[in-house]
């Protein structure tokens, strides 16, 4: 008996480990306590190491950038100050309008819009396989992050939280093949769903053949979306083509966010 | 001490793969350091170590990169086991043989990723996606792999390369360098 095990020890070990790995992979459709505990345990150990590595790399990159732009710092500083003053004024006007909008909605008996707050997060890891478009951030359930929360950057929509651990969370980027978000064309209000293609281009689907969509149109989040506030920029239409039977439009969208260089994100949280 | 070195090196490879490589656009799709490490240790130190490394590093890679848990583990386990099957028939120190092995195993690894993503995770990648990724990655692995293997064999594993270079005589050293010329 022992001879049998000794002779086939590698095959037995391989079969055992492959069964565990496959079991874990299959359970990812609906993660259970066991797989979540393994992920949590690994993340607890790896997250600090990843943070050190990402932080060091960011510092080196920042130093290189500072050295290369040393000459133009003074003029850049002046220009940024001017921009800041202009943005302060614009912000004041927007706040005033938002207040007025709220009052009018109340007078008309409209339901008040959901208020959102942003939790800043830092990217500490990325999917190494390059098949999936996911990043790991340094915020988790301990910071109030919930599964499915929307994730944005100042440029626009970035993705959504697909997994939450205690001190880290996984964000599925908009470019992932499994990602989709309810959107609308800003100019004509034509609705559609923007889906990831695993590349740097997104696809807008469920757009009817006769709908008014043109190249260079801005695509924004729709009011139908429950995880994003309406009107957040998603990208620009780059190509519009009619399907063979002419019933649907095939729309290509260039995302606003550069997914390759993401390092800081904002996670949306609905205010109670 | 050597085991500690292997563990440290393996963790470093995962950290670099999940943090630094994606910092350079396209680099993540260009090279998989963990895969190269698993191939090397499975070739040099046997199937059992390769299988364990594939399983553990695969799980760490999945969790640290935010991918589905088990995906990299399944792919790396498959690679380690395949290396074990052909290990005895391979002339491990031969440069062209190493290139061929690395290219074939990269294609196999990428195929396993493609297959399991499509079957278990309901992804819809095409054969073209697999071929494109495997081709790009195998080219860079073919260039870097043998040099990395040589460095690992010399400094980490301390196998016969050590005996040729440090403990061996001048004839042994000459024989060793002839492999690369």
Describe this structure in words.
The complex is a heterodimer of chains A (272) and B (181). Chain A is an alpha+beta fold and 272 residues long. Chain A has helices at residues 2-7, 9-27, 33-68, 73-108; strands spanning 116-126, 134-137, 150-153, 156-164, 169-173, 180-185, 191-196, 202-208, 218-221, 233-242, 248-255, 264-270. Among the domains of chain A are: 72-113, no CATH class; 180-256, Rod shape-determining protein MreC, domain 2 (Thrombin, subunit H, Beta Barrel), CATH 2.40.10. In chain A, the strands form two sheets. Chain A has a six-stranded antiparallel barrel. The longest helix of chain A has 36 residues, at 33-68. Chain B is globular. With 181 residues, chain B is mainly alpha-helical. Chain B has one domain (2-178): Arp2/3 complex 21 kDa subunit ARPC3, CATH 1.10.1760. At the A-B interface, α2, α3, β1 and β2 of A face α1, α4, α5 and α6 of B.
Q: What is the end-to-end distance of chain B?
A: 33 Å
Low-confidence stretches of chain B: none
Q: Residue-averaged pLDDT of chain A, rounded?
A: 87
Largest interface: which pair?
A: A-B, 50 and 54 residues
The fraction of residues in strands of chain B falls at under 5%
Would you spell out the secondary-structure blueprint of this structure?
The complex is a heterodimer of chains A (272) and B (181).
Chain A: H1 2-7, H2 9-27, H3 33-68, H4 73-108, E1 116-126, E2 134-137, E3 150-153, E4 156-164, E5 169-173, E6 180-185, E7 191-196, E8 202-208, E9 218-221, E10 233-242, E11 248-255, E12 264-270
Antiparallel strand pairs in A: 1-2, 1-12, 2-5, 3-4, 3-12, 4-5, 6-7, 6-9, 7-8, 8-11, 9-10, 10-11
Chain B: H1 2-20, H2 27-30, H3 33-45, H4 47-65, H5 71-86, H6 95-119, H7 127-157, H8 160-167, H9 170-178
Helix pairs in contact in B: 1-4, 3-4, 3-5, 3-7, 4-5, 5-6, 6-7, 7-8, 8-9
Brief write-up:
The complex is a heterodimer of chains A (272) and B (181). Chain A has helices spanning 2-7, 9-27, 33-68, 73-108; strands spanning 116-126, 134-137, 150-153, 156-164, 169-173, 180-185, 191-196, 202-208, 218-221, 233-242, 248-255, 264-270.
């Amino acid at each position: 008996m022992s001879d049998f095990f000794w002779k086939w020890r590698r095959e037995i070990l391989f079969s055992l480990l492959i069964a565990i790995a496959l079991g874990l992979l299959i359970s990812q459709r609906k993660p259970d306590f066991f797989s979540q505990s393994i992920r949590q345990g690994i993340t607890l150990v790896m997250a600090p190491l990843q943070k050190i590595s990402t932080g060091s790399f960011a510092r080196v990159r920042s130093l290189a950038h500072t050295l290369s732009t040393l000459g133009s710092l003074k003029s850049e500083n002046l220009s940024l100050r001017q921009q800041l003053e202009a943005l302060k004024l614009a912000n004041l006007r927007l706040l005033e309008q938002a207040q007025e909008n709220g009052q009018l909605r109340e007078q008309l008996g409209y339901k008040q819009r959901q208020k959102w707050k942003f939790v800043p997060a830092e990217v500490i890891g990325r999917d190494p396989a390059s098949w999936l478009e996911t990043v790991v951030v340094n915020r988790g359930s301990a910071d109030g992050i919930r599964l499915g929360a929307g994730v944005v950057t100042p440029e626009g929509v970035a993705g959504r939280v697909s997994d939450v651990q205690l001190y880290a969370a996984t964000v599925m980027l908009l470019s992932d093949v499994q990602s989709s978000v309810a959107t609308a064309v800003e100019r004509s209000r034509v609705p559609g769903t923007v889906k990831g293609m695993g590349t740097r281009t997104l696809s807008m689907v469920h757009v009817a053949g006769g709908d008014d969509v043109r190249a260079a149109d801005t695509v924004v989040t729709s009011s139908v979306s429950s995880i994003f506030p309406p009107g957040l920029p998603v990208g620009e239409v780059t190509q519009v083509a009619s399907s063979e039977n002419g019933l649907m439009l095939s729309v290509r969208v260039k995302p606003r966010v550069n997914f390759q260089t993401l390092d800081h994100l904002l996670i949306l949280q609905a205010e109670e | 001490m050597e085991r500690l070195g292997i563990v440290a090196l393996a963790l470093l490879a995962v950290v670099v793969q999940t943090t630094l490589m994606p910092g350079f656009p396209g680099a993540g799709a260009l090279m998989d350091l963990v895969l190269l490490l698993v191939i090397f240790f499975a070739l040099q130190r046997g199937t059992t170590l390769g299988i364990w490394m594939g399983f553990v590093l695969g799980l760490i890679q999945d969790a640290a990169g935010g991918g589905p848990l088990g995906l990299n583990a399944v792919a790396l386990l498959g690679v380690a086991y395949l290396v074990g099957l052909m290990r005895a028939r391979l002339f491990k120190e031969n440069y062209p043989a190493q290139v061929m092995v690395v290219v074939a195993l990269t294609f196999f690894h990428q195929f396993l990723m493609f297959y399991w993503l499509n079957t278990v995770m309901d992804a819809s990648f095409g054969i073209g996606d697999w071929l494109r990724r495997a081709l790009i990655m195998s080219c860079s692995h073919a260039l870097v792999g043998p040099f990395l293997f040589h460095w690992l064999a010399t400094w980490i594993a301390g196998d016969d390369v050590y005996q040729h270079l440090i403990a061996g005589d001048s004839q042994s050293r000459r024989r060793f360098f002839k492999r690369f010329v």
